[in-house]
Write a structure and sequence with these properties.
Layout lengths: L12 H24 L5 H24 L9 H20 L2 H22 L6 H12 L4
Length: about 140
């Protein structure tokens, strides 16, 4: 009798980072194509994004855990995601790509750093220097 064990496969962080950056870029391109070509309005685009994202997440969770369980809903996180998606979609109508990317990635970085500090993380002098340098828009 052959028994197969399910083992966790470790994926290198560099590969995951590259995949995340590719996903961010693809998201921006798809948004630009849909909204820039006036194929859909921002409100409909946001609705399609959030609903399709929820469906894909549900499928992935059901495959991973062997079935869907009743999710724990976090109202603040849900509202933040909705606000981000609405602002992202409507901003793409008036902002050029470079400005949009700068605002998007800067906002994500500030959110991550802010949450870390709020959670008790202590930034090192190098981390503070990097954050200040990035916020200043200069390149050392």
């Amino acid at each position: 009798m052959l028994i197969l064990k399910r083992e966790r496969v470790s994926v290198h962080p560099l590969i995951l980072t590259c995949l995340a950056m590719f996903a961010f870029a693809a998201n921006s391109v798809l948004c630009r194509l849909a909204l820039g070509g006036e194929l859909v309005d921002p409100a409909s685009y946001t609705s399609i994004r959030l609903i399709s994202g929820a469906v894909v997440l549900a499928v992935l969770l059901s495959l991973r855990s062997g079935g869907l369980k009743r999710p724990a809903i976090n109202g603040i996180s849900s509202a933040a995601l909705f606000l981000y998606a609405v602002c992202f979609s409507f901003a793409y109508i008036d902002l050029n790509t470079a400005s949009g990317a700068l605002i998007l990635f800067g906002s994500v970085q500030l959110t991550m750093i802010g949450f870390g500090i709020w959670s008790g993380e202590r930034l090192t002098a190098i981390a503070w220097s990097g954050a200040i340098l990035a916020a200043s828009g200069t390149s050392g």
